[in-house]
Design a protein that fits this description.
By secondary structure, the chain is an alpha+beta fold. The protein folds into 2 domains: 249 residues, no CATH class; 116 residues, no CATH class. Helices cover 30% and strands 26% of the residues. It contains 12 helices and 21 strands. The strands form 5 sheets. Strands 1, 4, 5, 6, 8, 9, 10, 11 and 12 form a 9-stranded mixed sheet that branches. The chain has a 6-stranded antiparallel sheet with strand order 15-17-16-19-14-18, with helices on both faces. A two-stranded antiparallel sheet has the order 2-3. Helix 3 packs parallel to helix 4, helix 4 packs across helix 7 and helix 5 packs antiparallel against helix 6. The protein is globular. The two termini are 20 Å apart.
């Protein structure tokens, strides 16, 4: 049967050997700083970061660590094809939220899968070497169905009342739970529903591209290599996108900065709390600035600045408008730094840099732009929380087996 998604025999940490999954799981490779990597590895010699991230380009060592974990039965293979229901419970601004989806194999050549971000060469080069060394999908890509998944919600509501297969907390104290779905009838219902929906890649564009490239070059070596490990979910309240603020050394004094901006924006000095309320209530392009200990709210005065954005779809994407129409007004020095928190942006900016406080892109905008074949610039979206790596992995199986 030619399936869009399919169950698989996952590889996961052995419940008989691992008592604390929080000690062995880790965030995705691209959000682990060098300091965080040291902290993860102090937790356990079996922490998945030893496999996920190659030290000093030693990709052979990543494979050796994976093989050791398998040999010692710290990692084991499931004995039946399953889907894996994955729930994350988290808090944002004091509000408790849940997000749920399934971990499965997703066919990569399905026409209804749309990327939404451009990729960079350096991460792809790194992940190509990891996949060639380990011969596995170590982390799932994050995919959103463009319509509500009623069967998924129905199955989730039933399973969440039962004991999970395993659970753990991540570094932000978010609770992660996984249940195995092995009943053929439930699997078939989910596969049919998801196959009927168009899908958008929310996170994992680099992994998608390099896995597809690996498939084209090795499709005669492994089973189901045209499938990739994916987390699939649908629109829901817990599908949260955080803003990505920019911290930049503008290399100009305060008067000069606001003189440049006042032709296009109404500028109002505000408190942090008032800034957040203004950003939440506005429809058209606006943003905040933190400069030398003070906050300012900037509301569009001259809409001609948007004429610089030829594609009208992008005019509703604040990060894109900022980079195309606002940032070129300044001479910046050094690299842009990014943060998803206003408090962290303040700390990074300090007394010398300027933090530009942007709004998060709405999920509807992500889906609309992606469906129409357009992509976002880097650092436009940040889906929160991140999916943990090491919960389940997918190892490639030789065709001869």
């Amino acid at each position: 049967m030619n399936q869009t998604i399919k169950p698989f025999k996952a590889t996961y940490y052995n419940p008989a050997s691992v008592k604390d999954y929080s000690a062995v799981t880790c965030p995705p490779y691209d959000v682990i700083s060098s300091q965080q990597l040291k902290a993860l590895r102090r937790k356990s010699p079996d922490n998945f970061s030893w496999v996920l991230i190659a030290d000093n380009g030693n990709y052979k060592q990543s494979a050796q660590c994976l093989n050791r974990l398998l040999k010692d039965k710290i990692l084991i293979d499931d004995d039946q094809d399953s889907l894996y229901l994955y729930e994350q419970t988290f808090k944002v601004k004091g509000k408790s939220l849940r997000r749920f989806g399934i971990l499965s194999l997703l066919k990569m050549d399905k026409k209804g899968i749309f990327p939404h971000e451009y990729t960079l060469s350096a991460p792809k080069k790194d992940r190509k070497k990891i996949i060639a060394s380990t011969k596995a999908n170590l982390s799932p890509i994050f995919v959103i169905a463009t319509k509500h998944l009623f069967q998924l919600e129905k199955i989730y509501q039933a399973y969440r009342k039962t004991k999970p297969f395993f659970k753990c907390f991540d570094r932000d104290s978010n609770l992660n739970k996984v249940w195995k779905i092995s009943q053929r009838q439930e699997i078939d219902r989910l596969c049919r529903e998801i196959s009927a929906s168009k899908m958008v890649i929310a996170d994992g564009h680099h992994r998608f591209e390099i896995t597809f490239d690996y498939f084209k070059k090795n499709k005669n070596r492994f089973k189901d290599l045209n499938y990739i490990l994916a987390y699939l979910t649908g629109p829901q309240e817990g599908l949260l996108i955080l803003p990505t603020h920019r911290i930049i050394n503008i290399n100009q004094n305060t008067d000069s900065i606001f003189k440049t901006l006042q032709s296009y924006f109404h500028i109002q000095k505000v408190s942090q709390g008032v800034l957040e309320k203004h950003l939440d209530s506005q429809g058209q392009f606006c943003f905040g600035i933190f400069h030398k200990g003070k906050f300012f709210f900037l509301k569009l005065k001259d809409k001609k600045i948007l004429d610089k954005i030829e594609n009208k779809l992008y005019r509703g994407l604040d990060a894109y408008v900022f980079h195309q129409a606002v940032l070129p007004l300044f001479k910046s020095a050094g690299q842009i730094q990014y943060s998803h928190s206003i408090d962290e942006s303040k700390a990074i900016a300090g007394k010398s840099d300027t933090a530009f406080i942007l709004r998060a892109v709405p999920l509807e905008t992500v889906l609309e732009i992606s469906r129409k074949g357009f992509r976002f610039p880097q650092k436009s979206t940040y889906f929160y929380p991140k999916l943990l790596s090491g919960l389940v992995i997918r190892r490639f199986k030789n065709l001869s087996r």
